[in-house]
Design brief:
By secondary structure, the chain is α/β, with parallel strands linked by helices. The strands form three sheets. It has a five-stranded parallel β-sheet, with helices on both faces. The chain has a five-stranded parallel β-sheet with strand order 7-8-11-6-12. A two-stranded antiparallel sheet has the order 9-10.
Length: 325
């Protein structure tokens, strides 16, 4: 049977089933010319195998002792959503199928099955994965083009900014965008995000000048129920919402000293406490900031922390004024 024509390397398949006969059939039956197959008989062993084997597809039995297939599915999709997962069950259990699909399963097989059925199923989920990736690339490119259309200018300064955006976009550096109000700092931040590996993740914007310090702290880091008057329920902050993406802090020069200290801690440790919270919240975000003030003067006036300035300013982009474009 012909497999996906555009795959130039072997497909790496991890089979996880507490029945050794099933794993043996799959390991022996899937052709060596097209597949590399590894097998585990329980969920914990599969977790250890993920990092060393890096599978393209996982075949998971739903009912296993200890960690069952649904738990393992949730772990895999959280760790690496690009891994395709096919669930396997001895029964066509509708609630279980629904649970698996909600957990991100790409397809479902019912025992007994033959190897050809498994090959067809693997081909189908990989073709869907390839299509999704192409659509995402197209959407990203269209989003970039739309942003570039609003980014107008022909001066040497402006062309240098375009160059910098393209160079910085592919890195994970923290960026400080400087320039007068109305020069397009927001557009630059969005372009950098769209060009980065985080483009599939969220882009979250916060205007630091629009909120009072206490409200800004809650907005950035979230709060727990009862943390202050009116906090009737827990709420995640913008940093949590930006996890695995980009957070854009506009007008960062207006941030109070107390919030500056907390932001510095987040940048250094990649973790923080919600307002009123006792548990660390870990995040993985890229930080882009913008300001229209003379931030060096603010540092001299003890209004902005020098150590924070160094942390947010891996690289600066200076936006030329509209009159200079």
């Amino acid at each position: 049977m012909a497999m996906i024509s555009n795959l130039t390397s072997k497909i790496r398949v991890l089979s996880v089933d507490d029945d050794p006969n099933v794993t043996w059939i799959l390991t022996d039956g899937l052709g060596e010319t097209q597949f590399i197959v590894e097998a585990c008989n329980d969920g914990r062993s599969a977790i250890n195998k993920l990092d060393e084997f890096h599978p393209d597809v996982c075949l998971l039995d739903i009912k296993m002792p200890g960690m069952d297939g649904i738990e393992l599915l949730n772990y895999i999709k959280k760790k690496d959503p690009t891994i395709s997962v096919i669930m396997i069950s001895g029964h066509a259990d509708t609630p279980m199928v629904v649970q698996a699909v909600q957990g991100g399963a790409d397809d479902f097989l019912v025992k007994p099955f033959d190897v050809e059925m498994v090959e067809i199923c693997i081909q189908k989920v990989l073709e869907k994965k390839d299509l999704r990736q192409r659509v995402r690339r197209l959407e990203t490119e269209l989003a970039r083009q739309s942003l570039w259309e609003n980014f107008i200018g022909e001066s040497p300064q402006f062309l240098r900014v375009r160059e910098l955006i393209e160079q910085v976009g592919v890195t994970d550096l923290n960026v400080l965008i400087r320039g007068e109000s109305g020069t397009g700092k927001d557009i630059v931040a969005r372009l950098i995000h769209q060009m980065s590996d985080r483009s599939r993740g969220p882009f979250v914007k916060v205007n630091c000048a629009a909120l009072l310090p206490d409200l800004l702290e809650s907005e950035l880091f979230g709060h727990e129920r009862g943390a202050f008057t009116g906090a009737y329920k827990s709420k995640p902050g913008r940093f949590e919402l930006a996890d695995n993406g980009t957070i854009f802090l506009d007008e960062i020069g207006e941030m109070s000293a107390g919030i500056q200290a907390k932001l510095l801690q987040v940048i250094e440790n990649k973790e923080f406490f919600r307002v009123g919270g006792t548990q660390n919240v870990r995040v993985n975000v890229r930080l882009i900031c913008a300001t229209n003030i003379d931030i060096e003067q603010h540092i001299q006036n003890k209004e902005f922390r020098l150590d924070l300035f160094y942390r947010i300013n891996d690289i600066s982009i200076h936006m030329p004024a509209l009159r200079d474009r």
